[in-house]
Specification:
There is one protein chain. The protein is an alpha/beta fold and 301 residues long. It folds into two domains: 10-99 and 210-300, Vaccinia Virus protein VP39 (Rossmann fold, 3-Layer(aba) Sandwich); 104-207, Orthogonal Bundle (DNA polymerase, domain 1), CATH 1.10.150. It has helices at 10-17, 34-41, 53-62, 80-87, 102-106, 132-138, 141-152, 157-170, 176-186, 196-207, 213-222, 237-250, 281-286; strands spanning 24-27, 45-50, 70-74, 91-97, 224-234, 271-273, 294-300. Helix 11 packs across helix 12 (237-250). The structure holds S-adenosylmethionine. The site of S-adenosylmethionine has 21 residues, from helix 2 and strand 2.
Length: 301
């Protein structure tokens, strides 16, 4: 049986959370339940959220032994505020391990891998309508270029978008490998992993991964008790920039326009930043998927 997901920066994030017996922790991205399992094993209680049905089923199975110390909810963490208000809890800590699980990449029919032939799907939540096939076949050339440039930081966005539009005029693009070959033909041969940026960009667009991430972080932070910590693990610079900027705002004593000579906002810092953490050499050796991970931690004052 293959592993659902190997948790990244597990020891570092669990250490940062300083789990207390019977403390309540939010895991906003359950995945295979690796981080939740560690919190529960230390005696904490978990409210676990994921929008992917497979993750929910996996965690219901894996974490069943913890009984009512673990509550699993299928939802988007952008609704965390409403969920936590309904649960009527304050949090002793929270973790968001962003991006996708190994299961989501390795399961061919999810359509997230450019190496595995499958229909262009890429949805984390199968209940939503927008799929990668719709993005690739229905977006205008300009929209495609914007998605590839903004979410993939793809230098060859224009050329790829143009070739997608040309190709779909002949016949619709239905599969991951069809898309991958269009991308490969659009960029110089010297580019390493030429499809990576395009697939990342379309996945981010399909799952609306970046819009509202700042608000979700602020909402979750708002439910922490004083002294509690929020850990966020990111896997690419776009996510990490949003986390860094949001944390900086929460930790700032003034959010005035810096061109003003004096502070007029009266804003006071609500959080304290901890040093960012990267995977150890040991983890990098054991799990290559950790290579782009960054952990940021903020403590509620
Ligand atoms: C990297 S995996 C988490 C792995 C987990 N920490 C573990 O140790 O197994 C990310 C998970 O977050 C979920 N996810 C991503 N964005 C989400 C969102 N906006 N709301 C809820 N779940 C989300 C994905 O479906 C995926 O299962």
């Amino acid at each position: 049986m293959t592993t659902y997901h190997i948790p990244v920066l597990l020891h570092e994030s669990i250490d940062a959370l300083r789990v207390r017996k019977n403390g309540v922790y939010l895991d906003a991205t359950l995945g295979g339940g690796g981080h939740s399992n560690a919190i529960l094993a230390l005696g904490g209680k978990v409210i676990g959220i994921d929008r992917d049905e497979d993750a929910i089923k996996e965690c219901e199975r894996r974490l069943a032994g913890y009984g009512d110390r673990c509550k699993i909810i299928r939802a988007n963490f952008k609704n965390a505020d409403e969920i936590l208000c309904n649960e009527n809890v304050q949090l002793d800590g929270a973790i968001m391990d962003l991006g996708i699980s190994s299961h989501q990449i390795d399961c061919a029919e999810r359509g997230m891998s450019y190496r595995l032939d499958a229909p262009l799907d890429m949805r984390m939540d199968k209940r939503q309508l927008l799929t990668a096939e719709m993005v690739v076949n229905e977006y205008t050339e300009d929209e495609l270029e914007r998605v590839l440039f903004e979410y993939g930081e793809e230098r060859f966005a224009r050329k790829i978008a143009r070739n997608i539009v040309k190709s779909r005029a002949r016949s619709p693009i239905r599969t991951t490998l069809e898309l991958a070959s269009i991308v490969t033909a659009s960029v110089p041969q010297s580019v390493k992993l030429p499809q990576r940026r395009t697939f990342q960009a379309i996945r981010i667009e399909v799952n609306n991964e970046l819009r509202g991430l700042d608000k979700a972080i602020k909402d979750i932070f708002g439910h922490l008790v004083s002294g509690a910590r929020l850990c966020v693990i990111t896997f690419h610079s776009l996510e990490d920039r949003i986390v860094k900027q949001t944390f900086n705002l929460l930790a700032a004593d003034c959010i005035c326009d810096k061109s003003l000579p004096v502070c007029v906002c009266g804003h006071k810092a609500e959080g304290k930043l901890l040093k960012k953490v990267k995977p150890s050499a040991k983890e990098l050796k054991e799990n290559s998927r950790s290579s782009s991970a960054t952990l940021r931690v903020i403590e509620k004052l």
